[in-house]
Design brief:
Layout lengths: L2 H31 L16 E7 L6 H9 L7 E7 L3 H9 L3 E4 L6 H11 L4 E5 L3 E3 L3 H6 L7 E9 L3 H19 L10 E5 L13 H11 L3 E12 L5 H21 L10 H31 L4 H21 L6 H24 L13
Helix pairs in contact: 1-6, 1-9, 6-11, 8-11, 9-10, 9-11, 10-11
Amino acid sequence: MSRLRSSAVVVGLVASVAAGHVVYPALLGLAARFRSREPVRPIISEWPPITVVVPAYREKGVIALKVDNIRDNGYPGDVRILVVADGDAETAEIAREAGADILLLDQRGGKSAALNAGVAHAETEWIVCTDANAQLVGGSLQNLVAWLSDSSIGAVAGEKLEGDGGELAYWRFTSWIKRNEWRTGSTIALDGGLCAVRKSAWQPIPVGISCDDFWISLDMNDRGHRVAYEPDAAVREESIGSFALSWERRTRVMASSFFVLAQKRRMLSPMTGAISAKIWGHKVWRSTLGPLSHVALIGLAVARAPRNPLAGAFLAFNAVAAIAVVAEARGRDLPRPAGIVAQVAYLQAVALAGMVRFVAGDRAVTWKKPDR
């Protein structure tokens, strides 16, 4: 390979690595600046009744606290709390004693099945879906559902507050992405920990889809409903615990998101408009081509390091990132710059492992889960 062609390959790979984390955010930020103003949350004069659907499996230790948290959130209208116990009679009984309505499914079908059952059972048009172990920040319910008074909006994404150091910095980065996607019409990033949906816009999540939040956001956009983002509607969620549990969950979610993309592959076509660019920039490139390009760059650097100082420096940087990931996995506190590097490297590894699980056909509709 000639030096010119070799340099072009390196430049192309570097651009590919940067596409999801640098190029897309930069272009999105420019597009958002051309908007005349940021969307303003609608003012509601008469608050309609809402149903808060809480899918729950092995949540006996937290479900009563969750019911109280919803009841005390301050929604100005009538709130019905519906706990969908996913084949878990013990959690159902505790939720009933706490004052929630109960829908007990005969057997465990996974979160998507529980959400389908809960939305179908709800008698209100405005519905909030939230995880049993996630505590609502005060005022979140009204801030979230106010957007549903706009008939063009089918779903509203809330915010999740978790982590610290590099993880928190990365969450803030993704929040900025969601905010600017919403400013340009609709976001594709909806977190299942807290969201709102309009029942008349809802379509059941298909069997075999376990990445419920990504499916909801893409499906709503696909059918012409916008997805809003409300940063002042948030939940606080404790860390899942060990590095091994976090790794299993994140790689499972990543693999599951690829199954969603496979089902919604028509939306990847530029013919679908701006939403296609958001899917490519926010999800596809960052989770597939970017990490693969990073691996290719490491391979090139290994071959060139003996005679190329820049290649050696690149390998050294990756080694430091790997060490930082290991240090965080062992519970070490890192300076914020090192934490951010560790988080980016960790998520690159998650994406690669998620691809492996997807290729292996690992849908993981249900999974092993510790009691909470």
